[in-house]
Every structure is written in structure tokens, then in C-alpha cells.
Design brief:
Elements (H helix, E strand, L loop, with lengths): L1 H14 L17 E5 L4 E3 H7 L5 E2 L6 E2 L5 E5 L4 H6 L6 H110 L35 H24 L1
Antiparallel strand pairs: 1-2, 1-5, 3-4
Helix pairs in contact: 1-4
GO biological process, one term: reciprocal meiotic recombination
Organism: Carassius auratus (Goldfish)
Keywords: Coiled coil, Metal-binding, Zinc, Zinc-finger
């Protein structure tokens, strides 16, 4: 009773299942003709013809020897109605049930194999996912450490920048203070110059270093080139210089004649 229910469930699931070529190189959905083996494997018409065309035949899926006459044969997956009506005619009911049981065992094996293959692929994919997650976690931790290091470097650079700003402000403040002192001294110097110039206009003798020449007053007489200026300082121009040297030449001549006489 339990076997009957299991077979019925297998038949229901198998009715929704499509056979696939058991060659790992192909894995294509089967239609038309296929090659089936005594070890419950099935292959597409192309790969079955290539593999089982030579002797001895070996199953590509499990490497089993297929030396019997009916260990491998080519069958039609969608037989005609006439074939289905005549293939089991005349056989004993027990034989019909045994054939049906073996056919269902073949489908159960194929379904279980596909399920196991899917579970294997799923486990491999899960393993890859776990490895990728570990790798991502490691990379994330590494990037987080690098990010923290960069944040610390940025913080230290900000401190250095603030220190430079503070020093810049101090230097700027000192410069402004020096500029204010300079402006103040410049104002004092300008006022002193104005005062000096005003005093010089009133009393030329009180500042003998204005022109670098000091007027020497003679109690008896004054040279002719000093007369037009009166009591003010003079500046030696080309004409005054010529007059000066002409005035000085007789004195030099008298000094030379005095030396000769002695």
C-alpha cells in the first residue's frame, strides 16, 4: 500500500519532469529519440550515437560496462498510439506490472539524480556565496581600517592647519602693529621735517647741514658771488663754481711765489 502511494506520488512528480541528457557536457532537454541504459541513465540522440557506436559500450555517466544485448538501446520518447496499444499486448498482468514498475523506477532514479545534482549545485553556490561574504567582510574591515586611518590623518592635518592659521594670524597682527608704528613714526618724521623746514626759513644758520656748506662771514669783505644771495645759503652751480675757482686761483699763485722766494 505504501509502495503504491510512493509510486503514485513519483508518477505525479515525474509527469511534470522533463528528462535531461545525463552527459555533463550537454544537459539538454530530451525530445524525439534518446538512448537509455540498464544503469538507468539516458542520453540525447547525438551523444548516445557517439558514445554507444563503438564496442564495448561504456556509460558516460557512471562508467558501467554495457556488454549485454539490451543493456543500451535507442527508444522513442513519444511513441505513436498504435505502438502504445500493441507493445504490452499478450503479456501476463504480472509482467505488465513488472515492466511498469521498472519504468517507474527509472523515472524515480532520474528525478532523484536531478534533485541531488540541484542540491549539489546549490551547496556549491552556497559555498561560493559564503566565501564571497567572507571576502566582502574582510575587504570591508580592511577598507574601514584604511578609512579610519585616513580620518585620523585628516584630523591631524586639520590640527596642523589650525596651528598654521593661528601663527598666520599672529604674524599678521604683528605686521599690522608694525605698520601702525611705522605710520606713527612716519607722521612724526613728517611733522619734524615741517618743523625743521620752518625753523630753517627763519634761521638759516641754525641748520648748517642742510646744504653741506656753511657761509663764512668775513669781518672785512665778502666775495662777489655771495653778494646776490645776501645772508642765505648758496648752491654751487656751473657759473658760481667757475667764479669760485677764478677767485681761488690768485691765492694759489701767491702761495707758489712765496715758496720760490724762500
Amino acid at each position: 500500500m505504501n509502495n503504491t502511494r510512493a509510486n503514485s506520488r513519483t508518477a505525479m512528480s515525474a509527469s511534470k519532469f522533463t528528462l535531461l541528457c545525463n552527459s555533463h557536457k550537454c544537459r539538454a532537454k530530451l525530445s524525439g529519440f534518446a538512448w537509455v541504459t540498464a544503469c538507468s541513465h539516458v542520453f540525447c540522440d547525438q551523444h548516445g550515437s557517439e558514445e554507444f557506436g563503438r564496442s564495448p559500450a561504456i556509460c558516460p555517466a557512471c562508467s558501467s560496462m554495457l556488454s549485454g544485448k539490451l543493456d543500451v538501446f535507442r527508444t522513442e520518447l513519444a511513441p505513436s498510439e498504435q505502438y502504445k496499444a500493441m507493445v504490452l499486448v499478450g503479456l501476463q498482468p504480472e509482467t505488465v506490472l513488472e515492466i511498469s514498475h521498472k519504468a517507474l523506477d527509472f523515472w524515480t532514479y532520474q528525478v532523484n539524480q536531478e534533485r541531488m545534482l540541484m542540491e549539489y549545485n546549490l551547496s556549491r553556490a552556497g559555498g561560493h556565496v559564503i566565501q564571497m561574504e567572507k571576502c566582502m567582510i574582510q575587504q570591508s574591515q580592511s577598507k574601514e581600517l584604511e578609512l579610519n586611518a585616513l580620518r585620523g590623518e585628516i584630523a591631524s592635518l586639520k590640527k596642523v592647519l589650525e596651528e598654521y592659521k593661528r601663527k598666520h594670524n599672529e604674524v599678521l597682527e604683528r605686521l599690522n602693529e608694525r605698520n601702525r608704528q611705522y605710520q606713527k613714526l612716519q607722521g612724526l618724521l613728517d611733522s619734524l621735517r615741517m618743523h625743521t623746514l620752518g625753523t630753517g626759513e627763519k634761521d638759516p644758520i641754525s641748520h648748517p647741514f642742510t646744504t653741506g656748506l656753511v657761509k663764512q662771514r668775513s669781518p672785512h669783505s665778502s666775495p662777489s658771488f655771495l653778494e646776490p644771495e645776501g645772508d642765505r645759503f648758496f648752491s654751487l652751480g656751473p657759473e658760481n663754481a667757475k667764479t669760485f675757482f677764478q677767485f681761488s686761483t690768485p691765492t694759489r699763485d701767491r702761495a707758489q711765489s712765496f715758496i720760490k722766494k724762500n
